[in-house]
Each structure stands twice: as C-alpha cells, then as structure tokens.
Amino acid sequence: MPTLSICIPTHDGRADVLDRLLGTIEEQLVTDVRARVEVCVSDNGSRDDTTAVLDRRRSTLPVALVTHRFERNDGFTPNLLKVMEIASGDFCWLLGSDDLIAPGAIAEVLAVVDAYPAVAGITLNRYRVNVFDPETKLHDPPEELPERADQLHVYDTVHDVFSNVGLLHDYISTQVVARELFDEVMRATSAAQLAEAKHFPHLLLLGRMVQRRPSWVWYPVSLVQHTTGTSALDEDLDHDFTSYHHKIVIGGGEPTRRARVVNRLLKQQYSSSPWRGFWKDLYRLRNFMWLKHKHQSPGRLAFAGLTATYCLKALLYDPQPLQRVPWLVRYALKGRRGDFRALTPEAWARRTG
Predict the structure, then answer these.
(1) Backbone φ, ψ for residue 307 (5° rounding)
(2) CA 77/CA 129 separation, integer angstroms
(3) How many whole angstroms from its chain centre is CA 158?
(4) What DSSP designation does 21 have?
(5) Average confidence (pLDDT) over 78-88
(6) What 3-state DSSP class applies to 26?
(7) What is the pTM of this model?
(8) pLDDT tens digits, residue range 106-164?
(9) 10 Å Cβ neighbour count for 269?
(10) How far apart are CA 345 and CA 58, in angstroms?
(11) 26: closest CA among 41, 16, 10, 37?
(12) Which residue of 52, 162, 237, 248 has the smallest Cβ count within 10 Å?
C-alpha cells in the first residue's frame, strides 16, 4: 500500500493543464519515492483530450495511475469523493488539476508524513499565480496565515487548528489528509449535508476530521502554485464561500421550547446553540464577517443588517439571548476589522461558569 496518494479531480477543459501537472509529478518520481506514491485522477465527464492524456501518462509515469471517469459532469462533490474512494494511500494529497507543485514537493510531503503519521492532516503553504500575469507570484497576507507562519507547527486542539489553518482549508491543493479518517467522516456525512456545502464539501469534511482527531500540521514551505483565473466557479465562490461558512456551522444544540415554536411558525430548521459552547459561534461569526468583508466589502448598513440577523437568531432560538447580543456585536466588529484575538475555550468556560 502506498504512503501517499496524489488525488486529482478534473473536468472538461482541463486536459492541457492536467497534462502539465502530471508532468511535474512525473519529474519528481525518483527511485526512492516511486514505491511510496500513487496518482489518482477522477474525470468529471470531460469531452476534451483528458482520456488521451491519461492513456499517454499511464505509459510514462513510473507509479500506478488509478483513474475513474464519470459519463457526465456530476459536480465537484461526487468527483472529489470518487477520487478519494479510488485512492489507497495512508495519506491523500488533494490537488486541483490546474495547479502545480514545487520541485521536490513530493519528497517533502513524504518527509512530513513520516514525521507525523498520526495527524489528521497537513496544510501546506502556497503562492498564487494568475494565468493573465504568470510572472507575478503572490503570497497570502499575514492575517490569513497562522501565527509565526514561517515555522512548522503541530496543533493539537480543535481551537488551535481552526484558529490557525481553518481559513486555509478552503483551498484543496494545500491539504494532505489521513485517508481512513476522511473515509470515516465521509460515511458519517449525509448527502443533504454535503449538498448544503455546495462548492465546499471539503470544508465540512475537513472540519469534522478535526473534531474527531484534533491534530494538524502547518508546513511553512510554499509547495503549491495556486493557479487563479481558470476556474469556472470563480464568479460564484465569493458568494458561496462566505454563505457556506455562515450556514453550515451555527447552532448545533438541542432546541429550546422557544426554538421549536418559532421553527414551526416560520417553517425553518434552526437549532439552538448551547451557552457553554457559544464561543464556537463567536469564532464562526468573526470568521464569516472577515470573509464577507474581504470578498464582498459590504457597506456599514449591510454589515449592521448582517449583525442584526445574528442577534435576531439568538433572540428567537437560543437560551440566554440577552447575554449573547453584546458578544455577537463585539465579534462581528472583530471580523470586520480582521482582529483574530479571542477568548480561548478555557477562558470562556471560566467566564461563563
């Protein structure tokens, strides 16, 4: 069984860039690496030369090339799940077919996996290159990266993982995940929950992996070239990423009597958020507001309306609603300002008793 499966979901129109990516992978498959790696590609019903590319690369790659082809484009979620399903490695490196990996990246990832075999996953650093300006390399701003991002970190609490690399989980090509744990979480996740995640099923699944095994590595070397300007989803992602974060994670407790009545009247399905775990919703609100401000730049009136929506939700559904409103306003403002300082779960427990 290989140590590392390089898992590439692809779709129509990506034949050339897929071939380019497979070429950079092939260049790195030196003798001492070959026995530990496989390459897996799931093709989402391509009508271009993808099949021919895969047939040609199958004869040149010195490792197993495992493939699957959908007869039609069934969307990103089935394609992502299928490429993970056909993999057999201990860890899976998810790679977008239009991205590239740095020289020596495979050997470095194997070294990290060898050093930390029990973690749920690894997030790699990256740089971005737009196809319309290929000479310019852009690095993520410091506020989007972990503290002391130039150093390797191993986070071992849910709080530390989400606080440091949670925002980076949106980009699949920098994620290396423990395959068996991913499969376990995938089996426990319903089709409806995956549909709610829309273009970001990996956010839901990686988040649940962290909850089950809060152990994650940040690797500071930029091993991935994130290619921008090629995705058919680019126009949608500004909206879907923030709305996904908004909808998928708020609540989660047993509904109060008030919540059950309001849900019945409004024909909704919101759950209550327990007071002892309210810090999680504050983190999520802060992150949502930061993403909203970063991607969509809502004006002050729109920001006030969003904050009021959260406060109204607390008043309608949650226990101790009047105590929550000042906290919600405070953390909404933190998100707008990009202020990621926050109470730790332990400090929240002491404060709330």
Answers:
(1) -60, -40
(2) 25
(3) 15
(4) H
(5) 95
(6) helix
(7) 0.69
(8) 999 999 999 999 999 999 999 888 766 777 788 887 777 888 899 999 999 988 888 88
(9) 8
(10) 50
(11) 37
(12) 52
